[in-house]
Design a protein that fits this description.
There is one protein chain. By secondary structure, the chain is mostly beta strands. The protein has three domains: 20-174, Immunoglobulin-like (Sandwich), CATH 2.60.40; 185-338, Immunoglobulin-like (Sandwich); 363-508, Immunoglobulin-like. It has helices at 158-164, 175-178, 438-444, 495-499; strands at residues 20-21, 26-37, 46-51, 60-63, 68-74, 102-105, 136-139, 146-152, 167-173, 188-198, 204-205, 229-232, 235-236, 239-241, 246-253, 260-264, 270-275, 278-286, 289-291, 296-302, 310-315, 333-338, 368-378, 384-388, 406-413, 419-423, 428-436, 449-454, 466-469, 473-480, 486-492, 503-508. Strands 10, 11, 12, 13, 15, 17, 18 and 20 form an eight-stranded mixed β-sheet that branches.
Length: 510
């Protein structure tokens, strides 16, 4: 079933209004429900899950330093929309089939409000996970202005809950950003990019079995999910009418597995101004932007002097990445910009030449170096599954950084996939990547480098919370742990990997 492209307009998620706002804090209530929504005008309405009755959820906008309280409320049905594999950690038959817990991705937040995967809760908080502590989460938002997102993080079913629609933007604003005179208001638009597949009746398709089925299981987790249609903000191949002027787009890859390498078919530059953790020091003009699952890029596109033109945002990243199938004419298309609106006023917004200092964390300030492997394994059903440091989720905690200390992590990728590694609580900086001899490492446990140190790409030279750890490379990241102590997680953000053991707890100690 091939759907027509560019027949539906891009939806822009509304900004959520707080339930109560006091001078000292803001309070939101956010409900998770099941509903029908039109994802393409040639499809029957699709049953999805979402926050506040929409997918993607409404955008939450907060001020840097604002104390925000959110009561996340699960009003979902007892039966899951998608096929659940009960052999996956945390999803066995001894827990309710539908459970949720919300993580604000990229937020620096106390551990009780981080959305720990075992802090889940069911409808009406009737049943809760072993690490559940409270109904109302607290976000102190001690970050600079940045593009974050909130999404489900339940142990064993994250891939299904996010695919069903549980994701939305969370934007932090500050005064420094306002003074830069970036495009704003209706000229600033978040773009959540995902891939999905549909059944003939318009319902979401998610595979029950991997390509090589597991005969003893009715439903088995798949090693990855690759959809055949691309959605932006919950619409398949939408178009956006724009004025001939500058626009700011906050790009987010919210796909389960798919990577995107985004370009404009007009050949024009994208001006990147920010990474996961906020604004960069200087903007960069790039022809393409690479986004692994969960990565964000803050960009300005200038449509000046392009009246009447249609510009297509394309994708040419293979799936799976980096050695999978090339994008085809469907998955190679993301959305269309139509420069058809008249200029409503003179565009005085700017692409700043400098956005503010971003001090590099010095390598010699690190008090600890950790060598952590990314491993390929087989489970008892003969399925491939990935591990961090060759340890399963339930193994004793081995990463216990001290509050206020700086560490360098060597991510040693022994698999054939690129893994987007996400560390909760903190932002890090990428030091470098370097090719090494994988076979020799497996035999001798020694890193033997086979090439020079490769600095981070220009588009990664900012604060990051998710990094692409490529095969045959050691990726080094540096970070300072704080301002909170307690229990957090780090994991691969390919959701099928995360759900199938590629996630580990860590604890920040005093």
């Amino acid at each position: 079933m091939i759907l027509s492209k560019f027949v539906d307009e891009l939806p822009i998620p509304p900004v959520l209004k707080p339930y109560r706002k006091h001078p000292y804090h803001t309070y939101y209530k956010v409900h998770m429900t099941e509903f029908k929504q039109s994802l393409h005008s040639e499809l029957n309405d699709t049953t999805v899950w979402g926050y506040e009755g929409r997918y993607p959820g409404p955008t939450i906008e907060v001020e840097s330093g604002e104390k925000v309280f959110v009561k996340w409320i699960n009003n979902l049905p007892a039966k899951h929309l998608l096929p659940v594999d009960y052999t996956v950690h945390g999803a066995h038959l001894d827990v309710p089939e539908v459970r949720t817990v919300v993580h604000v991705h990229g937020a620096s937040v106390e551990p009780e409000s981080d959305g720990y995967p075992e802090a889940w809760f069911t409808k009406g908080f009737k049943k809760v996970g072993p690490y559940y502590t409270k109904k109302v989460y607290r976000y102190d938002n001690c970050m600079r202005s940045c593009t974050l997102w909130y999404h489900d993080h339940t142990l064993g079913i994250t891939r299904l809950n996010i695919y069903a629609g549980l994701a939305g933007f969370y934007l932090v604003r500050d005064q420094q950003e306002r003074l830069l005179n970036l495009p704003c208001g209706s000229y600033e638009i978040p773009l959540m990019i995902q891939d999905k597949s549909f059944n003939k009746d318009g319902s979401l398709y998610y595979p029950r079995q991997p390509e090589k089925p597991v005969p003893e299981l009715k439903t088995s987790i798949v090693p990855e999910f690759i959809g055949d249609t691309i959605l932006v903000n919950g619409k398949v191949w939408p178009y956006l009418k724009v004025e001939p002027r500058k626009y700011r787009f906050r790009l987010l890859n919210a796909s389960n597995t798919r990577f995107y390498r985004l370009k404009l078919d007009s050949g024009q530059l994208l001006y990147q101004i920010g990474t996961d953790g906020g604004l960069m020091e200087y903007p960069i003009g790039v022809k393409e932007i690479m986004l692994a699952p969960a990565e964000r890029a803050d960009v300005i596109i200038d449509f000046t002097n392009l009246e009447g033109k249609n510009i297509i945002m394309t994708n040419d990243a293979p799936a799976s990445f980096p050695t999978g199938d090339p994008a085809d004419k469907n998955t190679g298309t993301v959305m269309q910009f139509r420069v058809t609106l008249p200029l409503s006023n003179i565009d005085t917004s700017v692409i700043p030449s400098y956005m503010g200092p971003l001090p590099k964390i010095k390598e010699k300030s690190a008090s600890k170096i950790r060598y952590l492997t990314l491993n390929d394994n087989m489970d008892k059903y003969g399925r491939e599954f990935m591990l961090l440091d060759n340890k399963q989720w339930d193994a004793p905690i081995t990463e216990n950084p001290k509050l206020g200390s700086t560490e360098i992590w060597y991510l040693i990728n022994l698999t054939t996939d690129t893994h987007p590694i996400h560390v909760h609580l903190i932002d890090f900086q990428i030091l470098d990547r370097r090719a090494f001899d994988v076979e020799r490492f497996k035999k001798e446990r020694v890193i033997h480098y086979t090439g020079p140190s490769i600095p981070p790409e220009p588009q990664e030279r900012g604060l990051k919370d998710t990094v692409r750890a490529n095969p045959n490379q050691v990726t080094r990241i540096i970070m300072k742990f704080g301002p909170y102590t307690g229990l957090y997680v780090w994991h691969c953000h390919i959701l099928e990997h995360e759900d199938h053991e590629m996630m580990r707890p860590f604890v920040v100690i005093r």
